[in-house]
Write a structure and sequence with these properties.
Distance between the termini: 42 Å
Shape: elongated
Number of strands: 0
Number of domains: 1
Radius of gyration: 15 Å
Helix content: over 70%
Largest sheet: none
Strand content: under 5%
Order of helices and strands: HHH
Length: 95
């Protein structure tokens, strides 16, 4: 159970970092030109949606038993990678 708790703590911390980064990106997008704002708004909405999905998966994972932890972890890892790629797209657009 220690491995699960450690993993969940690490993912919770990472999610908090991503939430702060979304706030920073929203602030940067607010300073962008009109055309860029429209594009960025869609991308930031996507980031927020992916973050919410990851948060929901994390909450469900906290309720899972050790017997399904491996499967749940795979799904959570995939959701995390999807969110990470979405961040990279938005960062590239802002730079």
């Amino acid at each position: 159970m220690l491995m699960k708790d450690t993993y969940l703590d690490r993912m919770t911390s990472q999610l908090e970092v991503w939430e702060a980064e979304i706030d920073l990106l929203k602030a940067k997008a607010g300073k962008a030109g009109a055309d860029a704002k429209d594009d960025l708004s869609d991308w930031l909405d996507d980031l927020t949606r992916r973050r919410d999905q990851l948060h929901a998966r994390l909450a469900r994972m906290k309720e899972t038993g050790a017997d399904v932890f491996g499967e749940a972890k795979e799904g959570l890892e995939k959701a995390g990678q999807d969110l990470k790629r979405a961040f990279e797209r938005v960062r590239a657009r802002l730079n």
